[in-house]
Every structure is written in C-alpha cells, then in structure tokens.
C-alpha cells in the first residue's frame, strides 16, 4: 500500500505539471504587433473597407488568382478598389502603377495604392494603404494580410504610392 504522504506529493506534482501545460507563454512582440494591426483596422474610416479586409484576410496567395481559393496582389487591389471605391484598375501591378497620381507617404489616404519591387527595378507588388504605417496586401507567403509598412523589407522595396487618377 502506498504511503499517504507519497501519494499526496505525487498528486501535487502531477497537478502542477498538468496545470502548466495549459499556460501560454506570452510572445510580447507578436501580441504587440497584433494589437497594432487591430488598432489600424479599428481606425478605418470606411467600415465597408473594414468588412472587405476582414472577409478576405487569410485567403491564400495564388499567382493569377482572383477569388477566395487564391488571389494575387494585383487581383486583390483590383477587387478592393472596384468593390469599395467603385474605381477601375488594370490587372497587373505594374500597369496599376501607371494610373495613379504619385504622393509622398505622409500624404497617403485610406485606399491609396503602394507599389513595391522585390525582384529588381520593375514594380512587382501592390498593396492598399490603410492608416499610420499599415497597409493590406496579398502576401506571397501569408496570403491576404494587414502589414506594417515601416518594416525594413517594405521600406527597401518601396517604389511609389498614390491615389487613382
């Protein structure tokens, strides 16, 4: 027969071990980043834009894609501009960049377009400005997502930004 003291100690150790399995270690960077994204979304003036982004967030990236099964950056920008602002855009990001009036980053307004070049000199990516340092785009690795424009990868690749003529 087990010693009562041994049994109590063993039970206590098991209880502490099992309780610790349910505790999530905080990732302060991820938590802070998520809070900033949530704040950018909450500060959108156009609630239809908020709903559009929420509805598309997480849609996977697919080159040439144009629906919820998969979409690319220019298809996403085209759909957003058409459905939210009733504006027409060409299909390719490089062509989209030719129909905007260029602006400095500090003059951007909600819905303006931001163009990048990750592969060289030609524009190969587009996103839609939200507010602060935040924009929404169809990322090749993460799908449709709200992102921070101040991240070095975006600062280094930024080519131009502005509003549709």
TrEMBL record:
Belongs to the peptidase C40 family. Residues 1-19 form the signal peptide. The lineage of its organism: Bacteria, Pseudomonadati, Bacteroidota, Sphingobacteriia, Sphingobacteriales. It comes from the Bacteria. It comes from Pedobacter flavus. Residues 43-165 form the NlpC/P60 domain. The keyword Coiled coil does not apply. This is C40 family peptidase. InterPro entries: Murein_DD/LD_carboxypeptidase (IPR052062), NLP_P60_dom (IPR000064), Papain-like_cys_pep_sf (IPR038765). Keywords: Hydrolase, Protease, Signal, Thiol protease. PANTHER family: ENDOPEPTIDASE NLPC-RELATED (PTHR47360:SF1), MUREIN DD-ENDOPEPTIDASE MEPS/MUREIN LD-CARBOXYPEPTIDASE (PTHR47360).
């Amino acid at each position: 027969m087990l010693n009562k003291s041994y049994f109590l100690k063993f039970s206590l150790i098991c209880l502490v071990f099992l309780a610790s399995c349910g505790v999530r270690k905080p990732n302060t960077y991820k938590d802070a980043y998520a809070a900033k994204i949530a704040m950018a979304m909450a500060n959108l003036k156009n609630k239809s834009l908020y709903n559009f982004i929420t509805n598309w967030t997480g849609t996977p990236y697919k080159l040439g894609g144009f629906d919820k099964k998969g979409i690319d950056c220019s298809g996403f920008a085209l759909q957003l501009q058409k459905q939210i602002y009733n504006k027409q855009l060409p299909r390719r990001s490089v062509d989209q960049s030719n129909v905007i009036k260029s602006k400095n980053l500090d003059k951007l307004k909600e819905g303006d377009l931001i163009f990048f070049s990750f592969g060289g000199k030609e524009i190969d990516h587009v996103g839609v400005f939200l507010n602060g340092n935040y924009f929404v785009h169809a990322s090749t690795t993460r799908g449709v997502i709200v992102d921070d424009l101040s991240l070095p990868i975006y600062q280094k690749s930024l080519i131009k930004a502005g509003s549709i003529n």
